[in-house]
From TrEMBL:
SUPFAM superfamilies: UDP-Glycosyltransferase/glycogen phosphorylase. It comes from the Eukaryota. The lineage of its organism: Eukaryota, Viridiplantae, Streptophyta, Embryophyta, Tracheophyta. Its EC number is 2.4.1.-. GO terms for molecular function: UDP-glycosyltransferase activity. InterPro entries: UDP_glucos_trans, UDP_glycos_trans_CS. Keywords: Glycosyltransferase, Transferase. It is an enzyme of class 2 (transferase). Belongs to the UDP-glycosyltransferase family. Pfam families: UDPGT. This is Glycosyltransferase.
């Protein structure tokens, strides 16, 4: 790694889950473009993904450090170093807490590095603030949520708005944003039911405290998308938020390989395109676990909708689809089920893909926006319910499935799936969402261009936070 004492040198430390690592690697690209040298911390099992993702960049400018992931941690299965490999997200907190055991290794390496201008570490790695302070280095938080979800959550907690709501589905208004109608079901534990002493609650509080003591927050969003929520946060809360996205636009489009070297699903999409068919892309991210009963409804809904679809499933779901159920055979003329890791951006960018049934993980939403693909929102966990509201009610780039009982959370029947898939792909509401997402895509691209809002924000952030000698 080329580095001298005067040129900026930034440490990046992504959290060990795909949805957190991918955008920070996109941020790495933006920093490398500015000739900033980087040291990227990860763990041994995550290292190949990181090295591969940056294989086309200038390797003289960055260095990847592989720390050993703690072994013999209660509840964390041996060899699992990424949340997408956990058998259940109920193991998330023990997993995330295990990362704290890497602090001595992290500090040992930190000590040996050339002068570090700042550390940008994930919001779930709050303990890195302590290391940064020990070495007198500013820490910025890399935060995976948009401003809508983080500002609304913070306001709702600050103003105690969940306390007086009758049932989980009773709508309430947020005085700071009077046009919003939310329900308790839009929020995940521990926001909706704080239990001091509970490990999940304590973990979240620790991260929030570490964040509030950090020098700033780097957010994967752009000013034009949510100016009101961003300004509200920066007026009312700390630390300051810097919007530098959508970061996925920092990655160059995939170079088209020869037809027979493309993954089979990309060949299949080409075929659908040649047949003049629109395809619905169905994927629920890298972590969500879907019950067998719910999977069954999805299969029926997709089959009855008669649209063409490409559905990426996870290993647990594969078993259901293969268990004496001739589904793949029945839908083979217009449905393809993919059982491996795909390049999601490449799929969304394909000309035949015209709709995305998505869990509304924030990266998926931004990737869809940047590909001008409207969303059928089906949130499952974390802040995805708020993201879904943002996608449908504020951005206007999607429709939404609703549970049987009219709730934003719960079991969704095949009739609802069929109806909403048809509406997204063929109906008037889908058409409106498609028009809206095209406008948003243009704004997003402008924000990321040289001189655009995100570009300038990153320059200012680097200038104010990382390029100065600071005494903390
Ligand atoms: N992803 C991918 N291929 C897959 C599954 C996921 O490229 O087969 C990527 C996806 O493009 C996105 C990230 O993994 O960048 C998932 O992040 P998101 O916030 O959408 O959801 P999460 O997995 O964190 O729930």
């Amino acid at each position: 790694m080329a580095s001298d004492q005067s040129s900026p040198h930034i440490v990046l430390f992504p959290f060990m889950s795909k949805g957190h690592t991918i955008p920070i690697l996109h941020l790495a690209r933006l920093l490398l473009l500015r000739r900033i040298s980087l040291t990227i911390f990860t763990t041994t099992a995550n290292s190949p993904f990181i090295r591969q993702s940056l294989a086309d960049t200038d390797s003289s400018l960055f260095h990847v450090v592989d720390l050993s992931f703690p072994q013999d941690v209660p509840q964390v299965p041996p060899g699992v170093e990424s949340t997408d490999r956990l058998s259940s997200m109920s193991l998330f907190v023990p997993f995330a807490n295990a990362t704290k055991l890497m602090q001595p290794q992290f500090e040992q390496v930190l000590q040996s590095l050339p002068r570090v201008s700042c550390i940008i570490s994930d919001g779930f790695l709050g303990w890195t603030l302590q290391s940064a302070s020990r070495f007198g280095i500013p820490r910025l938080v890399f935060f995976g949520m948009n401003n809508f979800s983080s500002t609304v959550s913070r306001v709702v907690v600050r103003d105690g708005l969940l306390a007086n709501v009758g049932s989980d589905d009773d709508p309430f208004t947020v005085p700071a944003f009077p046009w919003l109608k939310l329900t308790r079901n839009d929020f995940e534990y521990p926001f909706r039911d704080p239990k001091p002493g509970d490990p999940h609650f304590e973990f979240v509080v620790e991260q929030i405290v570490a964040m509030s003591k950090s020098q700033g927050t780097v957010v994967n969003s752009f000013y034009e998308l949510e100016p009101g929520y961003l300004e509200y946060w920066n007026r009312e809360f700390e630390p300051k938020v810097w919007c530098v996205g959508p970061l996925c636009l920092a990655e160059p489009p995939t170079v088209q390989s020869l037809q027979n070297q493309k993954p089979t699903w990309m060949q299949w999409l080409d075929q659908k395109s040649a047949e003049g068919r629109s395809v619905l892309y169905v994927a629920f991210g890298s972590q969500v676990g879907i019950s067998t009963e719910q999977l069954r409804e999805i299969t029926i809904g997709l089959e009855r909708s008669e649209v063409s679809f490409l559905w990426v499933v996870k290993s647990k779901e594969v078993k259901f689809l293969e268990d004496g159920y001739d589904y793949e055979e029945r839908v083979k003329e217009r449905g393809l089920i993919v059982k491996e890791w795909v390049n999601q951006r490449e799929i969304l960018d394909h000309q035949s893909v015209n709709g995305f049934m998505s869990h509304c993980g924030w990266n998926s939403v931004l990737e869809s926006l940047c590909a001008s693909v409207p969303i059928l929102a089906w949130p499952m966990m974390a802040e995805q319910h708020l993201n879904a509201r943002f996608v449908v009610e504020e951005m206007g780039m999607g429709l939404r499935v609703v549970a049987n009982n009219g709730s934003v959370r719960g079991f969704v029947e095949s009739e609802m799936i069929e109806k909403m898939v048809k509406e997204l792909m063929e109906g008037e509401e889908g058409k409106k969402a498609r028009e809206k997402v095209k406008e948003l895509e243009k704004l997003a691209r402008m924000a990321m261009e040289k001189g655009g809002s995100s570009w300038r924000t990153l320059d200012r952030l680097l200038d104010e936070t990382c390029m100065q000698e600071k005494v903390i």
